[in-house]
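Objective 1.3, modelling of assemblies. Example input:
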Amino acid sequence: MTAPMTSQMTAQNIDGIALSKQLRAEVTQRTLALKARGITPGLAVILVGEDPASQVYVRNKVKACEDSGLHSVFEKYEATLSQADLLARIAALNADKTIHGILVQMPLPKHIDPHAVIEAIAASKDVDGYSTLSAGELMTGAPGFNPCTPFGCMKLIESTGINLRGKHAVVIGRSNTVGKPMALMLLAAHATVTICHSATDNIKQHTLQADVVVAAVGRRNVLTADMVKPGAIVIDVGMNRDDNGKLCGDVDFAAIKEVASYITPVPGGVGPMTITMLLVNTLNSAERSAM
Ligand code: NAP
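Predicted structure (tokens):
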């Protein structure tokens, strides 16, 4: 998928479902090759409590593993589970040789410290890439696990065929799980990076300079067409509901499509890529364990 970054065009959709399918087919092939060597990549998913959205997310993650031939273990606990008991389960999974990735679904009940939980996961199994060690590896360019959502965004940008070297990228949002790692990945790809957040004055002044905009806020219409440079690539991470209760992103998709060169839809853009990159991270971990 390549096209020049020019003005006066209707943007092409970057299809996260199609790219996901392609990457998952590669995961399946690599999994088969690893199984032939006697190793089945394994992911453990832990859910504590009854949060309805979390239940959907973990179900999708477990199903994606099964569809690609990975081994998955799903552990569901009552919201009353103590932090000590959760840490003990993580310690057992850290020692389990059939498990190459451990994911604890967030948010956790209030009495459990998410940082203590994330840091308890063995560095070699931190497939969400949320630990301070994984963050440090990303920051220093050491090999490690990239957080799945920004990792997926990078694959979507790569699929356009446009080289990021020397391009100006603006990330809106600075969370530890999306905005900050996104900025570091863009920097590693030799983009010049600006990070905007809730205290940024005049975000438009920054986005109008951007060849790539990644919106990761969680608020509708954070990015409107008048804020986008003609020909820019727009990646929409946001997940919101419109007035009719329909899933939508952070960007004004219909209007920006007339200005940008490439744009990700919501749904069907970043969302499918997040789980795909979780599979990739788990597989990479299993391959590393086989070396
Ligand atoms: P988050 O932790 O709430 O962070 C939101 C960020 O947006 C913060 O850095 C905040 O700035 C910034 N922000 C808030 N209002 C703003 C404004 N008016 N202008 C500019 N920046 C503003 O959220 P997150 O976890 O990063 O997620 C962001 C969105 O992506 C959410 O909609 C989430 O559901 C979605 N998401 C989607 C996927 C997927 O797979 N599709 C995965 C993860 C997240 P401050 O730091 O200054 O408060």
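The CA atoms of residues 42 and 209 lie 44 Å apart.
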